[in-house]
Inverse folding.
């Protein structure tokens, strides 16, 4: 009798989770971590590689098709210096990386499904990063990741949102924050590893490692392929025949406005991997204990590390605010992120006024604030799109969220070309003002936009 009673009262086996979230999130998070390791490892080298090596007379003639490419740019922007050409190329590359997810979402929603789109995207990105190891294939090395990222980025983010019930806004925000933490793990490790290898063994070794790690991302995704819910044409077909309601159309319009509000923040934020590296390379004392810190170790490596560290504290803060009825809404969180980005740029503006080379603590402080700003803004935007977008348009609208980064990075490249015509203090103050504009817009519009978005969630 005692044995039987003990058996009856034995606790049920606990379901496995990934940091308290659905276990499938683990496959998606690790895929994104490897992919971002590869991407940020490559981009941390890109501007310095172009401006200090590839675009120099000894190498520039080796690039297939480069004369036509440069002629096209200069027909639009006028004669360009080496730094201006490097900055504009960086801006166009990182911009189009975030433009193509809109097309990739449409292709997945209408034709091949999200799982197949992610696999195809990973293959294209792998080929592109490997091609970066050779001068001649430089333009191809930019084109392939742009195409691959279009198929991968928006669709894998949409798959994260599909792990949660439509009315689970809190769980979805937490899930996207963990997913963003995986992004930041890759963004820390990529520049640290690729940057060190490039400094010790040459640029192409760093780029080659980035390509290898993209294959790791593909292998991780394939390992979890069977656990992912597909949402190809057949899954969306019943809804495709149903026209959008007036409430859904208003919600989509409000989402687009919120996306536009995030652009000033992104412009100020992502300049850290463009002119930020140029300024650090020229104005920061990077010798520590006799070792010269690679410039690539700053930038995304620092701000992404801070984003990882601050997530538990932000979760605790938001839970405390929620219990006391004061957790900021989604648009207010986006505004807070923009305000922090403005403060970060003011740090560099102040450092630029100091004589001689400055302490590495200044760019570290700058990147630290940017890392906190990222967690307030980007996961919140993705969670909002996932919550509000109609099912049949989720991938397309998630791609539209990445489209804001296309606009931002394209502008970043043009703004970066102004660096040679301004003092560094003026340049970073200008970026602070841009970010502050986004913060003001978010706080002014948060209530009217919030009413439209909240009404969408009510029957």
């Amino acid at each position: 009798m005692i044995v039987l009673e003990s058996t009856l009262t034995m606790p049920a086996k606990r379901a496995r989770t990934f940091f308290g979230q659905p276990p499938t999130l683990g496959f998606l998070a690790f895929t994104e971590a490897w992919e971002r390791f590869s991407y940020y490892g490559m981009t941390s080298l890109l501007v310095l590689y172009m401006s200090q090596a590839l675009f120099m007379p000894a190498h520039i003639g080796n690039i297939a098709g480069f004369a036509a490419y440069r002629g096209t740019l200069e027909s639009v922007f006028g004669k360009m210096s080496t730094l201006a050409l490097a900055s504009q190329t960086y801006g166009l590359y990182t911009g189009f990386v975030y433009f193509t997810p809109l097309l990739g979402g449409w292709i997945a929603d209408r034709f091949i499904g999200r799982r197949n789109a992610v696999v195809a995207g990973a293959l294209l990105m792998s080929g592109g990063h490997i091609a970066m190891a050779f001068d001649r294939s430089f333009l191809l090395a930019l084109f392939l990741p742009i195409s691959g990222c279009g198929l991968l980025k928006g669709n894998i983010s949409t798959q994260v949102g599909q792990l949660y019930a439509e009315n689970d806004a809190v769980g979805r925000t937490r899930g996207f924050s963990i997913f963003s933490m995986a992004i930041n793990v890759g963004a820390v490790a990529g520049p640290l590893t690729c940057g060190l290898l490039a400094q010790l063994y040459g640029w192409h070794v760093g780029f080659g490692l980035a390509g290898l790690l993209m294959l790791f991302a593909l292998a991780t995704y394939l390992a979890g392929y069977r656990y992912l819910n597909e949402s190809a044409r057949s899954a969306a077909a019943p809804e495709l025949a149903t026209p959008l309601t007036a409430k859904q159309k208003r919600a989509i319009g409000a989402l687009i406005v919120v996306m536009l509000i995030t652009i000033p923040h992104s412009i100020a934020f992502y300049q850290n991997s463009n002119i930020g590296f140029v300024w650090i390379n020229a104005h920061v004392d990077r010798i520590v204990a006799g070792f010269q810190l690679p410039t690539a170790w700053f930038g995304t490596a620092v701000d992404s590390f801070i984003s990882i560290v601050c997530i538990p504290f932000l979760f605790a803060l938001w839970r405390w605010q929620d219990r006391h009825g004061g957790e900021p809404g989604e648009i207010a969180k986006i505004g807070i992120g923009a305000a922090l980005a403005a403060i970060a740029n003011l740090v560099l503006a102040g450092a630029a006024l100091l004589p001689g080379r400055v302490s590495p603590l200044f760019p570290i402080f700058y990147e630290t604030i940017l890392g906190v700003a990222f967690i307030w803004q980007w996961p919140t935007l993705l969670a909002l799109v996932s919550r509000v977008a109609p099912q049949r348009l989720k991938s397309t609208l998630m791609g539209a969220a990445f489209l804001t980064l296309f606009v931002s990075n394209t502008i970043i490249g043009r703004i970066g070309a102004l660096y040679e015509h301004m003092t560094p203090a003026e340049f970073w103050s200008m970026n602070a003002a841009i970010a502050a504009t986004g913060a003001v817009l978010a706080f002014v519009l948060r209530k009217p936009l919030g009413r439209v978005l909240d009404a969408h969630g009510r029957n």
Notes: The longest strand covers residues 287-288.
